[in-house]
Amino acid sequence: MSNATTLFDKVWDAHVVRHIEDGPDVLFIDRHFIHEVTSPVAFLGLEQRGIPVMYPQRTFATADHNTPTMNQDQPVKDPLSANQLAALSSNAAKWGISLWALGSPKNGIVHVVGPENGITQPGMTIVCGDSHTSTHGAFGSIAFGIGTSEVEMVLSSQCIMQPKPKKMRITINGKLGKGVLPKDVALYMIAQITASGATGYFVEYAGEVFENMTMEGRMTVCNMSIEMGARGGMIAPDQTTFDYINGRDKAPKGADWDIALAYWKTLKTDDDAVFDKELHFDAVDIEPQITYGTNPGLGTGITNHIPKASEVKDGEASYKKSLAYMNFAEGEALLGKKIDYVFLGSCTNGRIEDFRAFASIVKGKKKADNITAWLVPGSHIVEEQIKSEGILDILNEAGFELRQPGCSACLAMNEDKIPAGKYAVSTSNRNFEGRQGPGARTLLASPYVAAAVAVTGVVTDPRDLIESV
Amino acid sequence: MAYDKFTILTSTAVPLPIENVDTDQIIPARFLKATERKGFGDNLFRDWRYNADDTPKQDFVLNNPIYSGKILVGGKNFGSGSSREHAAWAIYDYGFRCVISSFFADIFKGNSLNIGLLPVTVSEAFLDKIFRAIEADPKTEIEVNLPRQSVTILATGDTESFDINGYKKHNMMNGFDDIDYLQSMKQDINAFAEKSLY
User: Fold this and answer.
1) ipTM here
2) Which of B103, B27, B107 is nearest to A148 (CA)?
3) A258: Cβ–Cβ under 8 A, 6 or more apart, which residues?
4) B-contacting residues of A 281-300, CB under 8 Å?
5) A156 — contact with chain B (CB < 8 Å)?
6) pLDDT digits (tens, 9 = 90+) for A37-83
7) CA separation (Å) from A97 to A30, A68, A438?
């Protein structure tokens, strides 16, 4: 019997405080991120039980889901949103938890600010009351979303009780083609295996495509793991990872860095380790993607037509309901469809690279008249980079404005709601019914596709606007 | 949170034969702004249940008086998407105690078990039988027996067993939760934390 283990096993097994027979593992959590929506009831629970926060220094709080993206210096208008933000601030203050509240120079979306400040590191266990916590797996950590009862569990004991998931590896070798971004890789995988194809699994992404990706790209891919049903996704840490972390605010320094680095270098899947499921795809088969339905699995190459109900893996009734909501017909072409809104942002594609990609296409062109564009950085640090790199000037010259950081139209808990019946091409992660506002119709795509749509007003293949690779 | 003990539930059921019911449909994001855990049942399936002017949509199953009961029967991949526990709270607050499907999203399943809402996974063939039985007679009673881990359509006697983790079963049957357990092992946790690299 081989002792070979996977990256996932290595990190998981190193965090088991107790294994319960016919029960879950008690897993120690290194970092806990909290935000204003899923934490207030957890704090209330602690109060009712009379239990303190066990390790406040391991929890990091940021305000993001509800925050406005304009006039952030003004009081928040919606009283319910203001109330949640106030609850986050008072709970953080009461328990001594560090908080990046609205207005803080480090404020931003939880899955953007964690990595960019060096809080997220390889080999950690990381949880947050948000399904896109899987983002942090890009660093070779085990990171997953939890519910509010579990937020209370982690606050009170720094542990969570979970059965160990099964393991899947998705390998993609080859070189990505012109105009193909990490978001396209994520949407392609989800379309291939459906929105539930990885349920019950933790996924490791392997192969040249991921090895050659930047950390921003890896975060985009891991972020979308939950959209194929996976608990999380992870990528083995390598020099790209170490270079990204080194020097960041909360990263280890000096001798601590050397100790950490030596450990991080051991975090990889052994050659003969066995996964419960292995999938292989070829980079050459991936073109720019776009979704047409109401779950992230209902997507295809941008030059394709919408499949017929008989061709899809989801149930026919659900598929027809989905197309009826979108007001699309089976067999229709996607290219040329008129779009009303473009949203660049979210924890999936609100990082600096996404703004660079968007700007590279709109540079020297003009925003289409029929498009309302909401460009929302993932954090204040990203916002500053957009300004200092001259990207803001390019955007302004092309007729775009930049908003302030937050989750924004991704889940429409703030004022940024796509109106009923309107079409939005969105770089966020979900196209569920009403996700971006009641009745809103969302097509998920990469920053390149979003930019191509923003300047043409219709679904456009970005490769037509990219002069050279 | 303490919740009702679950042993044997015999009830009529509400059918929702749609695949990939995501938690944004169960409770849309705009209703997540409370800081207390109450009243979410009013907005359960809000946008499928009500028109924009707040009048009930006649064709949605929760607005059809012939269907009622403490069991919700959903299609494959129930509860996908957002980790919001509010989805499980809304289903529980509305009055359901059990959801039956052929396939649950992981986080939703975990959230449900943590609040006393029993997620029961049956085969696709058995799920079809349940849907057909309810369609034929909305008064069809279903018995969900947690001690025996079985689901039975009482009128036909059709039955199937379901899996549940032994620890979670014990908790559900006694109304315990994980926090009670974790509080009892603080010494072990402290010892573990002390040797942590991070």
Assistant:
1) 0.95
2) B107
3) none
4) 295, 297
5) yes
6) 999 999 999 999 999 999 999 999 999 999 999 999 999 999 999 99
7) 14, 23, 35
